[in-house]
Specification:
This protein is an alpha+beta fold. The chain has one domain. The protein has one helix and seven strands. The protein is rod-shaped, with a radius of gyration of 26 Å. The relative contact order is 0.16.
């Protein structure tokens, strides 16, 4: 009987050790997902800032091109950068948005509010694999078209 008690206690201690190790692994996996999601959102915000800064440069220089570099991926995810106009109730509003490809619910957006809404129009989008992008400012008469495109 004495030999069996020792074997059972050793097996029990081993099982408890495996359980603790599994618990720690699961907890780190959950934590890693949260950190990756926050990192991805921060990186998308950085791209959005680059786009809006380039947009401001293009608006200040009529008939110009502003080139900028984009990372091929953010946290190993592809993404899409877009400039667009939205007109709820006839009021024109401009936005820049970066979202994860295949998951449109994961995005960051910024309203471009310091633009003459009558004079400017915004359009265009670029997928992350492009490496380089260009914002073109094309002025014809009293209107200016700002376009985001692949370089």
């Amino acid at each position: 009987m004495k030999g069996q008690v020792r074997i059972v206690s050793e097996v029990l201690i081993f099982a408890i050790g495996i359980g603790i190790a599994a618990f720690v692994i699961v907890q780190f996996s959950i934590m890693q997902e949260g950190v990756q999601q926050n990192s991805f959102k921060d990186q998308m915000q950085g791209i959005l800032n680059t786009v809006t800064n380039s947009l401001q440069k293009a608006m200040n220089s009529p008939n110009s091109n502003v080139d900028f570099e984009m990372p091929e991926t953010l946290s190993e995810n592809s993404y899409l950068v877009s400039l667009y106009e939205y007109s709820p109730g006839g009021e024109k509003r401009f936005f820049a948005i970066v979202h994860k490809l295949g998951e449109p619910s994961t995005y960051v957006a910024k309203e471009i509010f310091n633009i003459d809404k009558q004079r400017y129009s915004l359009s265009g989008s670029v997928v992350s694999g492009s490496k380089f992008a260009r914002i073109s400012s094309i002025t014809t008469g009293a209107s200016t078209k700002i376009e985001l495109q692949r370089r």
